[in-house]
Amino acid sequence: MRIFILIFFVFFLISCGGGGGGGNTNNENPLLIKLYWDPPAPEGISGYKLYIGYETKKYETIIDVGNVTEKLLELDDNETYYIACTSYFINIPDNITEESDYSNEIEYSTKKK
User: Fold this and answer.
1) Which of 18, 35, 36, 103 fits as disulfide partner to 1, beta carbons 3.0 to 4.6 Å?
2) CA dihedral defined by 9, 13, 14, 18, rounded to 10 degrees?
3) Are 5 and 35 in contact (CB under 8 A)?
4) Strands (DSSP E) found in 1-113
């Protein structure tokens, strides 16, 4: 399974009200990335999970995205992320979940160069 990244930058409009006050003084802009992946060949996939961490192969966050092949994520500024994906199948009569091995891991950095 291959994972791809589409990057979106989100910018917030900063407005100043009358009297010279107001406005957002936070200079950090969140970074949105759109992850999408090719589904594996076998039919009957019940869903996908994204694994996200700050170190390679050490995933701190697991997101069950359901049976879709894309997900929009908001990332913090000045971090390096490691992301992998799995697919899973739920055998309903037996209520057993089988999960695939991890996809190839991708590394993505939001650090300014």
Assistant:
1) 103
2) 180
3) yes
4) 3-9, 31-37, 47-53, 61-66, 70-75, 80-91, 96-99, 106-109
CATH of region 3-15+29-109: 2.60.40.10
Which residues are 24's β-sheet partners?
none
Answer positive or negative: Cα dihedral of 41, 91, 100, 34.
Answer: positive
CA angle 109, 112, 113 (to 5 degrees): 100
Q: Mind giving me the DSSP string for 6-25? A: EEEE--------GGG-----
Q: What is the DSSP letter of 45?
A: -
Residue 81 tokens read as 């992320």
